[in-house]
Amino acid sequence: NGTAPVTAPQHSVEGFVKEFLRELHFGQGVTLARASDNDQYLALARTVREYLMARWLETLRRQFDAQAKSVAYLSAEYLLGRQLDNALIATDLTEIVEEGLASLGIDLATLREQEVEPGLGNGGLGRLAACFVDSLATMSVPCIGYGIRYEYGIFRQTFVDGWQVEQPDTWLSLGAPWEFPHPEHSVPVHFGGHTETYDDGGVERTRWVPAWDVLGVPYNYMVPGYQNGRVNTLRLWSARATKAFDLQIFNSGEYVDAVRAQTFAENISKVLYPEDSTPQGKELRLQQQYFFVACSIRDFVENVLPEDFDLHDLPERIIFQLNDTHPVIAVPELMRILVDEKKWDWDEAWAVTQKCFAYTCHTLLPEALEVWPVELLGRLLPRHLEIIYRINDDFLAEVAQRFPGDELRLRRMSIIAEHPERSVRMAYLATVAGAKVNGVAELHSQLLRDKVLPDFSEYWPDKFTNVTNGVTPRRFVRLANPALSELITDAVGPGWVTDLERLREMEPLADDAEFRERFRAVKAHNKDRLNALLQRRDGITLPADAMLDVMVKRLHEYKRQTLKVLHIVSQYERIVSGELDPTSIPRRVFAFGAKAAPGYKMAKQIIGLINHVGAVVNTDPRVQGALTVVFPPNYNVTLAETLIPAADLSEQISLAGKEASGTGNMKFALNGALTIGTDDGANVEIRQLVGDDHFFLFGLLEPQVEQVVAAGYEPSRYYEENRTLRRAIDLIASGAFANGDRKVFEPIVSNLLHEDRFLVLADFQSYVEAQERVDAAYLDTEGWTRSAILNVARSGFFSSDRSMWDYIDRIWHAQPVVAR
Ligand SMILES: CCc1ccc([C@H](C)CC(=O)N[C@@H]2O[C@H](CO)[C@@H](O)[C@H](O)[C@H]2O)cc1
Predict the structure, then answer these.
(1) Which stretches of the chain drop beneath a pLDDT of 50?
(2) How far is it between the farthest Cα atoms of the chain?
(3) 279-285: long-range contacts, CB 8 A cutoff, minimum separation 24
(4) Which of 19, 260, 565, 685 has the fewest Cβ atoms within 10 angstroms?
(5) Does 276 sit in the ligand 1 pocket, CB within 6 Å?
(6) Domain segments of the chain as ranges
């Protein structure tokens, strides 16, 4: 009767080989002798899936029976990374598969390279979503991640003469073995049209009369918990035309028209918007946001909840976590369903809706806060605009009661902005509707209260909280750094992988010379591994025994890659001018990784500058190899997994008050790199936990930045007064890095001298002095290693598991479903 529990294949080499060959033969339809690497990889992926399938179905059954409160994580981005290795460590199959494949003459490493990572995100926000769903699965907390299955993810970055050129991300072209399409659960999504009121048995109601619609097809992905028998679900939506092909039009000879609807519909989930801070306000982006939100809420209400579920109990059953404002249209969507479809009265619906959402803000840049013109929102989603107006009216009426006559406050707090054009402030809608609002690091959450949403923080002080970001130790230590994992497990046992605070037990070993020796051997091994990868991937060779100084993150002026370049150029200038003896400083490799949003000109300029500076510095004999710049293209999760474990120095140099949190900073500390950084985002909490002696702090503090700007910041004054800085800037301006062409990098130079919005020049001297402290510290090998070990031992707090417990305690009040 089909209720027999699904059993996984045998957890043994024989069991695996039998399953793998069956998949190769019957799944791929090839013999081992004739199988391509891709055939073997797809067969391997499907075999590993089978080991997870039983857990998946068991998890679903258990959660359904428990009717436990779940988390629905709504995110427009998921930067998942490759799936194979994560599945192997989650099922503890790595050794078995390695041996099984080897017995067939296959190298697991070769098949590993076949996998193209799903780049369904831009940067921090997308990767955080991936870490969070991993943690919830490992903690056995019921969670469904909802998002968009972009046909093309984040662009593939190539360099042409050092300049970024984008290529489409054809991640699906060789097959997608980790997804499960379920067209039978497709959801219709409507757009456009108008609204009309009608009499419904004496009650005046409103209905939406849409103009067009598409189908949302769900693709399920497994989110395996780490060795806990659990697998949660990530459901990504893909758009299809409701009427794929119009035969009449086709028969009338209008072949293109016949499929126009199909192309039009598919466009909605065609490609990820590559911006990670400045919304372009494109209509298609709003279509994408409403599309996946409408699919997700409909799916949860109609497919996940039991048929007879009373939606008045929804807040006890689900919390929709809004990953920034991108999914906030979910609020009026739920109201529309409850009022228009379920025919509840407004207050009844609002009472429930208010308890079902929580909002996480991930930015501090005013330009990154989304606002949608009412003209556009009203045209695409006329009923939702009406509902937003009603939410705003009721809210402002409440505020007016509390602050009678305070017109200015009403105008400041209105969800609808009147200037420059009438538009909806999505962050305000999220704050009004959300049960809780949180920032992603202590400093960020404080600035959110004081600077970004002060009126709301004053109005609802208890609504605002903080949950400092975290990263999953499964991917970013256990998977990415097997050598360090072994060393840690030797020292404190295997429990740290799911209880990262156990790392603290390693602290005394920082004083153990033999352990330090082994720790250095791990770092050296990881550097060799990186060198091998960069040679294979990009034809880049790393100089031996050099400090690896790494800056990897999206290219953005507030992150100040320019400050890093000025440091390199000033060192170079001092060497070639004879002021600095290249043999007196530790040899350094400056490794960069960074994509720029295609429309972000200055960011692309800075990428060009880094590569052109590298081309000169790397080949100038006067440098004697003391400075090397490497910039492997297409920085992504997979490259990070090899780059971060090899790093000695982590560059976290954003202007204080600009980086909401950062998560790369946490990954570096957990992999034994020391941080040079400002007191910004989560750097503050890293420094507080690892200790000032093991962190190279520099730069203006956030309040000082305010003062400098308020006092009128003149960057050129720093240029005139600081000789080293002036000579570095003059060298760039001279065209020395552009075959003498002064024009090429003129925009960067004049921006630094006349605008410098992110105070690069103001922080230059403090930064250079901190780098001198780094050089001195690195020469004390034992001291450096000791600090590196203490960074690892004291960074357990930065596990995304801890972040999840904070969300559970402060926002979600969902519990792990552990009952066997
Ligand atoms: C619509 C344009 C757009 C797209 C993405 C975003 C994201 C919020 C940008 C982002 O990724 N923010 C980063 O989020 C990380 C996770 O919380 C933080 O660690 C980073 O500091 C923050 O920059 C803003 C605006």
Answers:
(1) 820
(2) 90
(3) 279/368, 279/370, 279/371, 280/599, 281/371, 281/372, 281/373, 281/376, 283/376, 283/380
(4) 260
(5) yes
(6) 1-66+83-116, 71-79+121-368+433-468, 474-798
548 CA → ligand 1 middle, Å: 27
Cβ 768 under 6 angstroms from ligand 1: no
CA distance 804 to 791: 22
| pLDDT tens per residue across span 64-122 | 888 889 999 999 999 999 999 999 999 999 999 999 999 999 999 999 999 999 999 99
Helices (H), 84-229: 84-90, 94-102, 108-112, 124-138
* Cβ contacts of 768 within 8 Å, gap of 6 or more: 567, 570, 724
Domains 71-79+121-368+433-468 and 474-798 share a fold: yes
How far is the centre of ligand 1, averaged over its atoms, from the C-alpha of 367 (Å)? 12
C-alpha to C-alpha distance for 58 and 819, rounded to whole angstroms? 12
**CA–centroid distance, residue 605 to ligand 1 (Å):** 21
Q: Check if 324 has its Cβ closer than 6 Å to any atom of ligand 1.
A: yes
Tokens matching residue 400: 């007016």
Interface ipTM: 0.99
CA-closest residue to ligand 1 atom 5: 276
pLDDT for the residue numbered 79: 98
Q: With the CA atoms of 27, 30, 33 and 36 taken in that order, what torsion angle do they form, in degrees rounded to the nearest 10?
A: -80
Pull the structure tokens for residue 482. 């097997």
Residue 188: count other Cβ atoms within 10 Å of its Cβ: 13
User: Distance between CA atoms of 587 and 547, rounded to whole angstroms?
Assistant: 6
- pLDDT of amino acid 279: 74
Between CA 462 and CA 710 the distance in angstroms is 31
Q: What is the CATH number of domain 71-79+121-368+433-468?
A: 3.40.50.2000
Q: Please name the CATH architecture into which domain 474-798 falls.
A: 3-Layer(aba) Sandwich (3.40)
Residue 630, strand partner residues: 591
Whether 663 is in the pocket of ligand 1, judged by its Cβ within 6 Å, is yes
Counting ligand 1 atoms within 8 A of each CB, the residue from 122, 131, 154, 277 with the most, and so the one to mutate, is 277
279 CB under 6 A from ligand 1?
Answer: yes
CB-count exposure of residue 426 (10 Å: 0-12, 13-18, 19+): buried
Does residue 363 have its Cβ closer than 6 Å to ligand 1? yes
Nearest CA owner, ligand 1 atom 10: 125
Strand partners, 438: 360, 465
Among residues 559, 567, 694, 794, the one annotated as catalytic is 559
Compute, in angstroms, the gap from residue 468 CA to the centroid of ligand 1: 14
Ligand 1 close to Cβ of residue 477 (< 6 A):
no
Q: How far apart are CA 465 and CA 448, in angstroms?
A: 10
